[in-house]
């Protein structure tokens, strides 16, 4: 597409230059007619240059968004790795505590076993026999105290034993929970790393297109300036001005009291303004800056789209899958949320548009419409469909 545009632009320039250098020395009427023709060609060339410059401006903005997204994602990766390291240290600490508790339990088990052996060796003498075998009342009191002390000691030992067993079980559960969370973070980190690689590839492609367009623009501009100098000797210089354009992603306000069908129209169409003018950023879409500059992750985009219809829902895939009402794929209709198993279960979410398509913020393209009837999205669609608007 770029090469076709450049070919048209350069062809127009060559035609214009050919006309300039073939101007004959003729009477005033002939020269005036030729000037009019060349002036028209200059105007057309300037319009084409203006269009290329406008596209260059948009490409520069997109590159800036992608580079910022790469920076943000790299920072998020560093933070996630730091969290993983901290979790590993906590796991090691818990394992050391468990080992200590298990050692204490083992020692108490030996004490209880020793007491049991001693009890058996004495011929299974009951505490009551010990008390009744007293020689006198003073001996009776002493034996009562001794028996009470032994009973209390055994009870405290058993209580401590049971408490430590419960502590070990609690610590083990805590370790398992930490490890589960750690595995989820690792999976998330790998997903983020893949997204950054995709964004770098996108950035390289955009830079190549930009350099090609810049080279063509500079060459065409130089040729047009030469043509303009040739015409200056015959008629007044032609001045053209090109108005710079800047894409605005300002979000208009919507009526939140709309009907269900109107709200479905809003959530399925409001995000289309960002197609080709957005970038995937992990954690994006949750600030005014992100929304203005088209910086979204999948759940942030869904959250924003529904907010434009006056509907408040969660901003993470975990919270979104628990919102609304789950329906079967056969009942699926525009406006429903659809979930995909990407780097983890329910790792991606989008808004169903109908006809096997959904809109969402994809890691490789930013906001885009994708086909879930075949290819990658068909393979990763897990069948989870959640209806928010009844």
Give an overview in words:
By secondary structure, this protein is α+β, with helices and mostly antiparallel strands. It has 2 domains: 1-244, Helix Hairpins (Orthogonal Bundle), CATH 1.10.287; 260-387, endopeptidase domain like (from Nostoc punctiforme) (endopeptidase fold (from Nostoc punctiforme)), CATH 3.90.1720. It has 9 helices and 8 strands. The protein has helices at residues 2-21, 28-121, 127-132, 137-232, 260-269, 288-292, 298-307, 317-321, 375-380, and strands spanning 279-280, 295-296, 325-327, 337-340, 348-354, 357-362, 366-371, 381-387. The strands form 2 sheets. It has a 6-stranded antiparallel sheet. Residues 1-27 and 234-255 have low confidence and may be disordered.
Q: How many strands, what sense, and barrel or not for the largest sheet?
A: 6 strands, antiparallel
Model regions low in confidence, pLDDT < 50 over at least 5 residues? 1-27, 234-255
| Number of helical segments with 4 or more residues | 9
What is the terminal separation in angstroms?
43 Å
Number of beta strands:
8
What is the count of structural domains?
2
Helix and strand succession? HHHHHEHEHHEEEEEHE
Work out the strand percent: 5-15%
Which architecture of the largest domain per CATH?
Orthogonal Bundle
Q: Residue share in helices?
A: 55-70%
Gross morphology = elongated
The chain-level mean pLDDT equals 74
Structural class: alpha+beta
CATH class of the largest domain: Mainly Alpha
Q: If strands are numbered along the chain, what order do they take across the biggest sheet?
A: 3-8-4-5-6-7
State the CATH topology of the largest domain: Helix Hairpins
Rg for CA atoms: 38 Å
